[in-house]
């Protein structure tokens, strides 16, 4: 470009995804002078990269679509076609293959720099480039050849090719595996092994290599790629291996190098963030304007991953830029939310009232508040209504807008505390993922906002001050719960303010046997094991779950640490220093006597356990391995520490009849959710491949339609809104989620049942694959069918708190576990 | 790990029930004796017969119940009851007969009943001992996995053997070709193959390795270790199949004879009422 003055537009929209397209279409309608730039050669690359034939959902269902850009739930192909048609019809001013490399605020205008060196200026810039656009690319000579791709759309599309897959992570390995059989595959991995992969991928990979279906080069990086002018192979990859440079002629390169987080890019533009967290969202005004005047951020990049939200924001942002007042698209939804509450006022007024009554919510900007309220329920309990009960398994969080509530922690009907308007509750379940520690009951008519855990988590990640306050209150609550029922408010505050929150990785020690006592540890989330060296080996004595404490033994006796305490899974604990704790003990005889009682109880239990261990040791010389404590260690290694309910199979009883699997399949649409035959065994106890209903379910982390929930009794289940994206399957570290077509099972006749004949399967209608997992038969009266269908009682479900009593054969003897009920 | 098995289910609930039933029946048998002696047609005989028939239906219903996954309650309780009440049934039917036996449908029914009960006892025994043995034999592996690994060893061993002298190659390929793992039910029940080619191959290889040239030494060692591992895999797979076969074998008597019992019992009842 030889022109000295850069081209100028009123609005430059960066990214031709749903949000950017919508903005462009609105700008066309409003005759705005604009330019839409897109780094890819076609619009909507994130959706283009979905697998072929994927059904794209239009959540949230109730939200109206206000843009002219059409969007309904439909197949990926249909959607892309419609949008391309719209681009043509509106004659959208779009420039493809145009990558933005820099953006800064000039004196008057925003300056946009493109990859080819061209500079543009604009009054307003709308950033709508999503979060998938920043795929890490091969920054090598030839890395931009057409034979190099960063996604695998349809593995079936390639036949008889030699394909080089770059990247030894899960996505690279999965792509490679999907291509085997019909193609020759070579994986280039710059690491020395595939240790970053999931175990299942790793074993499939090893098998595939043994079969000769693929090969790999380790500690190898591609150096350059060249085009071949003749011969069978269009390109040659030059790879830097341990033994020098290797030439690999091939048809195609698939590079799976992961996506770059978007924060560094935004920061390079000068956009401000509220927390140092890499996942934090940029600071935005209610008009989507960032900390740089004139720079607007919408869509997934602004923290709104749903397509419809992005499209609406595209429309709104253009209206805001033009200075037109627009009521956000969600106003009607909010009005519905407020249908029973403050009906005499406008939506904005009600939001303002909420903001004024709840200090914690005043920390949010308008966009965040609107989103929070939209995702939440407004509850209007009457006096005496119970919000949740102690030991319920709900993880929602509550803000009190009006009214007062009582907290009941123990079994008497006397309130142990009150909650007033402007306060909040439910923070402990939010952090620990465990059962509710107390009952909350309205003492007056109240107005409450009930917010899902996922929404709170997102807010905590981006609003630093909110995180700090929540942490403070959570510490206070756990102190109150564990030791402070009789503490005065002043003492309680004093303890809480001086307590420190500590985090431990799985396996890390909180303290070691023989250490000087540094204080009392209250387990806030996760769980720990308590072990001692007995007869030269480490013996696990107890398993302590969140909501309980460890370390009181040495505090009471004044001796060094009696045992080693180790995090079973990632754990957070609140430490109250020894000096302060002794001070409290001295002044509060009730706490003193409680700790003393626990101390004596522990001594007694220890003695019993040691007897038991040595009895096992001497009587059962051949199988010394199977002492109760070793069994516990084994189960904890299997991830039972983060489980809330786990299926075990006693192999010494199991007659391999498979009724557990058949019963599961029969009652759950034909797909069994457990694999009896797979899973590690220790001392005749198998942990089969089956859901453990984790405290903080890994599967819930990234579910686009938010289809995974936790039922009040702890069951983690997937509802009908599953779109079959497979994220949960990938995220589960225990491989217990599968993708499967669900269809009703025929009920066999009496003769078929008597003789064990399979009934003829009903004709299978074509259905989409959805994620299926164990739901603990929450909708079936009588409880889990796998356990009930077991004729010999080999299948059993255990809560981690009960492990020890099961392991030592004292069923029901829960005193061995540090689980003094509050 | 301790929890209830089928015998001590709910603190021997069904054991106690069975004992009570037997005691009541026995007491009645001792107290009420018709003038002509005990026989099935007395009022006591009819009562015991009706109770036995009811029990037979209840016990047969277990076969249905264990596959009715959508019903409530636990199958374990049903199995426990099935075992103890089946034992009680033998006593009831014996009292019912008044120990009158002959060559007729009635005695045939009784005989079939005994076959069913005795095979059931064998089932109990099998369920008690084999699960533990199976776990000891298999560990965390499963049969499919073993078979796959045997197939892989076959492939690798054959490949290496191709490079070796003919006698070694012959031994290896014969072992791969002729080893059979549980092809017939009889072989499964036995759990071994007479003159197992895999075991013999290992023995032969031990001797054949003595006068190999130096350049074959390393390959020979590889081959030998593959064949040794392969043999133990084969043995474990056979062992697993044997346990499975033995654990399920009694059902080949229990179920058909149970059906036969139902039919014989119906004939027996019809015979009694029609040929009064």
Protein topology:
The complex is a heterodimer of chains A (822) and B (276).
Chain A: E1 7-14, H1 18-29, E2 34-37, H2 45-48, E3 55-56, E4 74-75, H3 76-89, E5 94-95, E6 100-105, E7 110-114, E8 119-127, E9 148-149, E10 162-166, H4 170-179, E11 184-189, H5 199-211, E12 214-218, E13 221-227, E14 235-241, E15 244-250, E16 252-255, H6 263-269, E17 295-297, H7 307-321, H8 331-337, H9 347-357, H10 366-375, E18 377-379, E19 386-388, E20 397-402, E21 405-408, E22 417-419, E23 424-425, H11 427-432, E24 439-442, E25 447-451, H12 453-462, H13 464-482, H14 489-498, E26 500-504, E27 509-511, E28 519-525, E29 527-534, E30 537-545, E31 549-550, H15 552-557, E32 564-567, E33 571-577, H16 578-587, H17 589-619, H18 628-637, E34 646-650, H19 659-667, E35 681-682, E36 685-686, E37 708-710, E38 716-718, H20 727-731, E39 738-740, H21 750-755, E40 770-772, H22 785-788, E41 795-798, H23 803-808
Parallel strand pairs in A: 1-2, 1-8, 2-5, 8-17, 9-16, 10-11, 10-16, 11-12
Antiparallel strand pairs in A: 3-4, 6-7, 7-8, 13-14, 14-15, 18-25, 19-24, 20-23, 20-25, 21-22, 21-24, 26-33, 27-32, 28-31, 28-33, 29-30, 29-32, 34-36, 34-41, 35-36, 37-38, 39-40
Helix pairs in contact in A: 1-7, 4-5, 12-13, 13-14, 16-17
Chain B: H1 13-31, H2 43-65, H3 75-97, H4 105-138, H5 143-161, H6 166-178, H7 185-190, H8 197-208, H9 217-249, H10 251-274
């Amino acid at each position: 470009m030889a022109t000295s003055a850069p081209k100028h537009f009123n609005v430059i929209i960066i990214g031709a995804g749903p949000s950017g397209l919508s903005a462009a279409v609105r700008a066309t309608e409003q005759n705005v002078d604009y330019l839409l730039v897109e780094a890819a050669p076609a619009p909507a690359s994130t959706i283009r990269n979905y697998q072929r034939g994927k059904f794209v959902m239009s959540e949230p269902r109730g939200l109206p679509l206000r843009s002219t850009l059409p969007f309904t739930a439909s197949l990926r192909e249909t959607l892309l076609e419609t949008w391309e048609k719209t681009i043509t019809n509106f004659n959208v001013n779009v420039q493809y293959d145009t990558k933005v490399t820099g953006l800064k605020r000039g004196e008057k205008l925003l300056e946009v720099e493109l990859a080819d060196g061209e500079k543009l200026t604009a009054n307003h810039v709308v950033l709508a480039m999503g979060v998938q656009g920043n795929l890490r690319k091969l920054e090598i000579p030839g890395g931009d050849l057409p034979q190099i791709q960063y996604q695998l759309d349809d593995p079936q599309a390639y036949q008889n090719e030699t394909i080089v897959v770059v990247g030894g992570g899960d996505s690279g390995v999965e792509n490679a595996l999907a291509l085997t059989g019909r193609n020759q595959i070579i994986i280039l991995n710059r690491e020395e092994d595939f240790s970053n992969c999931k175990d299942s991928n790793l074993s499939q990979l090893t098998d595939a290599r043994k079969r000769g279906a693929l090969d790999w080069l380790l500690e190898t990086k591609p150096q350059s790629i060249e085009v071949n002018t003749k011969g069978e192979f269009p390109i040659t990859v030059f790879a830097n291996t341990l033994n020098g440079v290797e030439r690999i002629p091939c048809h195609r390169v698939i590079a799976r190098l992961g996506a770059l987080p978007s924060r560094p890019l935004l920061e390079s533009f000068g956009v401000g963030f509220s927390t140092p967290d890499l996942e934090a969202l940029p600071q935005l005004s209610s008009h989507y304007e960032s900390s740089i005047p004139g720079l607007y951020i919408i869509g997934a990049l602004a923290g709104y991953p749903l397509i419809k939200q992005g499209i609406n924001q595209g429309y709104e942002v253009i209206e805001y830029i033009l200075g037109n007042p627009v009521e956000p698209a969600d106003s009607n939804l909010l009005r519905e939310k407020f249908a029973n509450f403050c009906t005499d006022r406008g939506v904005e007024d009600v939001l303002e009232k909420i903001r004024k009554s709840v200090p914690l919510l005043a920390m949010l900007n308008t966009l965040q508040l609107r989103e929070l309220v939209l995702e939440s329920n407004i509850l209007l309990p009457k006096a005496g209504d119970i919000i949740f009960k102690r030991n319920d398994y709900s993880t929602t969080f509550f803000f009190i807008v009006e009214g007062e509530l009582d907290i009941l922690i123990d079994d008497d009907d006397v309130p142990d505390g009150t909650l007033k308007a402007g306060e909040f509750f439910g923070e402990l379940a939010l952090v620990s993922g465990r059962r509710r520690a107390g009952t909350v009951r309205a003492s007056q008519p109240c107005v409450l906002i009930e917010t899902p855990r996922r929404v709170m988590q997102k807010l905590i990640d981006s609003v630093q001050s909110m995180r700090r306050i929540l942490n403070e209150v959570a510490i206070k609550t756990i102190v109150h719960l564990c030791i402070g029922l009789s503490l005065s408010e002043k003492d309680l505050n004093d303890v809480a303010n001086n307590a420190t929150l500590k985090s431990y990785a799985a396996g890390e020690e909180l303290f070691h046997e023989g250490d000087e006592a540094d204080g009392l540890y209250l387990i806030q989330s996760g769980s720990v094991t308590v072990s001692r060296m007995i007869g030269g080996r480490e013996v696990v004595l107890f398993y302590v779950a969140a909501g309980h404490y460890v370390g009181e033994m040495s505090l009471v006796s004044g001796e060094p640490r009696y045992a080693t305490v180790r995090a079973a899974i990632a754990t957070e604990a609140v430490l109250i220093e020894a000096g302060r704790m002794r001070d409290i003990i001295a002044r509060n005889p009730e706490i003193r006597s409680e700790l003393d009682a626990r101390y004596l109880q522990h001594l007694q239990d220890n003695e019993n356990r040691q007897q038991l261990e040595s009895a096992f040791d001497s009587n059962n010389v051949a199988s010394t391995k199977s002492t109760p404590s070793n069994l516990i260690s084994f189960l904890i290694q299997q991830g039972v520490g983060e489980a809330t309910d786990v299926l075990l199979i006693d192999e010494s009883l199991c007659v391999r009849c498979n009724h557990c699997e058949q019963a599961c399949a029969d009652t759950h649409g034909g797909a069994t959710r457990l694999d009896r035959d797979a899973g590690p065994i220790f001392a005749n106890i198998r942990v089969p491949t089956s859901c453990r209903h984790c405290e903080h379910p890994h599967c819930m982390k990234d579910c686009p339609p938010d289809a995974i929930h936790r039922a009040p009794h702890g069951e983690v289940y997937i509802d009908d809104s599953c779109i079959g994206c497979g994220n949960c399957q990938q995220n589960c570290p225990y491989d217990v989620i599968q993708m499967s077509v669900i269809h009703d099972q025929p009920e066999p006749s009496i003769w078929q049942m008597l003789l064990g004949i399979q009934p003829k399967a009903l004709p299978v209608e074509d259905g989409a694959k959805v994620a299926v997992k164990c739901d603990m038969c929450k909708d079936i009266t009588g409880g889990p069918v796998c356990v009930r269908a077991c004729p010999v009682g080999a299948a059993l479900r255990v809560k981690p708190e009960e492990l020890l009593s099961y392991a030592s054969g004292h069923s029901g003897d829960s005193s061995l576990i540090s689980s003094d009920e509050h | 790990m301790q929890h209830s098995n089928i015998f001590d289910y709910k603190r021997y609930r069904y054991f106690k029930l069975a004992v009570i039933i037997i005691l009541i029946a026995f007491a009645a048998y001792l107290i009420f004796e018709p003038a002509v002696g005990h026989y099935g047609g007395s009022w006591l005989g009819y009562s015991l017969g009706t109770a036995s028939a009811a029990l037979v239906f209840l016990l047969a219903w277990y076969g249905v119940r264990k596959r009715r996954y959508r019903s409530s309650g636990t199958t374990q309780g049903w199995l426990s009851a099935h075992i103890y009440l089946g034992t009680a049934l033998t006593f009831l039917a014996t009292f019912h007969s008044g120990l009158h036996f002959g060559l007729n449908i009635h005695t045939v029914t009784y005989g079939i009943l005994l076959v069913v009960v005795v095979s059931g006892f064998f089932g109990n025994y099998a369920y008690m001992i084999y699960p533990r043995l199976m776990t000891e034999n298999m560990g965390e592996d499963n049969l499919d996995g073993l078979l796959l690994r045997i197939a892989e060893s076959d492939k690798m061993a054959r490949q290496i053997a191709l490079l070796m002298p003919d006698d070694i190659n012959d031994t290896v390929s014969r072992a791969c070709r002729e080893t059979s793992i549980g092809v017939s039910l009889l072989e499964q029940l036995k759990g071994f193959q007479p003159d197992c080619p895999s075991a013999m191959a290992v023995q032969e290889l031990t001797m054949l390795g003595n006068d190999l040239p130096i350049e074959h030494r390393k390959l020979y060692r590889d081959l030998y270790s593959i064949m040794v591992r392969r043999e133990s895999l084969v043995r474990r797979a056979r062992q697993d199949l044997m346990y499975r076969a033995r654990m399920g074998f009694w059902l080949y008597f229990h179920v058909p004879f149970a059906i036969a019992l139902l039919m014989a019992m119906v004939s027996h009842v019809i015979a009694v009422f029609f040929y009064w």
